[in-house]
Amino acid sequence: MKTFVRCIAVLYFAGCAGGAQALVTSYDNLSDWTVALGNAAVVSDPFDNDIGQGGAITFDSGVLSTVWGLFLFDNSVSLGSFHMAVSPEGVYATPYNDWFFPHPVFAFGFDFSEVAPGLASVVIDDGSGPDSFELYAVGTGNASSAGSANPASVAPGPSVYLLGYSGFAGFVSDSGSFSAVRFYNQAPGTLDAYNLDNLVFATRVPTPGTLALFSLGIAGLLWSTKRSP
Fold this sequence. Notes:
It is a single chain. The chain is built from four helices and 15 strands. The chain is α+β, with helices and mostly antiparallel strands and 229 residues long. The protein has one domain: Sandwich (Jelly Rolls), CATH 2.60.120.
């Protein structure tokens, strides 16, 4: 009995490894993303408070944002938005911007603006393997007030995209969880400067069955501890 009960607790804390592979679904609007969450607890970060540029900064929501080198106003918050630019070569802008959530989440999303088609993208992994999503493709590319995604001419550097499109990009894992998200630019020889706003992320609420298994595991551990010589 002691061994059996300990195994139950171990299986719970290990996340019941060996189950079905998780599925990640993308959403292009906040309403559908919210419906997909059910009764999950949602954290919102409107980026209302300015945060100075740094190699690593922490948002008000607890998310840690890091970059591989500082350029212009990258990795900073001002005027109600998070500012970033990414370039594959890492010469004129950081090649990667990594966000680390304060705890594992099963869903997250944000508004974006000034994103150019085919450039700014994210890599996420909910435990079933990495997936890559282009922000413009996910958010359907609604034209922003800036109105254009044509590159600015900046010699001798890359094609620099300062204007672009706005939209919403949201992601939900049906059974996995995300610890981090990586932003990058998939088009060599380009630089995409964009803004993000209204970050949201959600923690899965345990089901009654999961809570019962957890309680059984804890009770078993306490029972076995008392019975140990």
